[in-house]
Specification:
By secondary structure, this protein is mostly beta strands. It has one helix and 18 strands. The structure holds copper (II) ion.
Length: 224
């Protein structure tokens, strides 16, 4: 009887696994205007996402952001809420990855290449700024979202979010040098092909951040 039950369950599984309505695409193009009214060369580092009550919950992920040549790679990530991130050190010196973001404060401490550092877990939505306590020039952005409707554009600003359930949403676009912009969007059974958003980075000015103790970094840096 048990064997027969297992066989019957196995036979029904492929049917259950079939997608019940794959959703539609929301596509369009963003622009990011830098000083001198030039299109930003790093439009691809923007993030575009949909917010709305029709959206399903996304499954958490486990991802890596490398610390390499005194940079975070990738510099910009977007992840579902509940995801964990490790920050492997690929440099021949120590890093100390931390964030003071109220949604997800963490401090991984000093660690060298090859040392397995603790991971950071992101349990709330928001934009998390991640820094290194040793190297003030290192910075990363992690956008934590509560649904799977997000993407990053191509180098020409074109984007496509696929598998979207028709409904009413707010379309968001973010770039690290610009204020976030939003626009209401109604997604019908044919999807959206011409969503357009413009991000203005012309007023951007670099501002140094503080270290993990909320203090300015020492002048000239510290060697570890
Ligand atoms: Cu560092």
């Amino acid at each position: 009887v048990i064997l027969l039950t297992l066989a019957a369950t196995g036979m029904t599984m492929p049917v259950v696994a079939q997608r019940a309505g794959a959703g539609v695409a929301v596509a369009g193009k963003i622009s990011v205007l830098d000083k001198g009214n030039k299109q930003a060369s790093d439009i691809g580092a923007a993030i575009i996402w949909l917010e709305g009550p029709s959206a399903p919950v996304a499954a958490p992920k486990a991802v890596q952001v490398l610390t390499e040549e005194k940079e975070f790679r990738p510099r910009v990530s977007v992840l579902p809420v509940g995801s964990t991130v490790t920050f492997p050190n690929n440099d021949p010196f120590n890093h100390n990855v931390f964030s003071l973001a109220p949604e997800a404060p963490f401090d991984l401490g000093l660690y060298a290449r090859g040392q397995q550092a603790n991971s950071a877990k992101f349990l709330k939505t928001g934009l998390i700024k991640v820094y290194c306590n040793i190297h003030p020039q290192m910075g990363a952005f992690i956008l934590v979202r509560d649904n799977p409707y997000y993407t990053q554009p191509g180098t020409d600003g074109s984007f496509q979010i696929t598998g979207v359930k028709p409904g009413t949403y707010t379309l968001h676009a973010w770039h690290e040098r610009a204020a976030e912009v939003t626009k209401p969007v109604t997604v019908g059974p044919a999807g959206v092909t011409d969503a357009a958003l413009e991000l203005d980075a012309r007023g951007y000015a670099f501002k140094p951040h503080l270290n993990k103790l909320g203090q300015p970094y020492p002048r000239g840096g510290v060697r570890y």
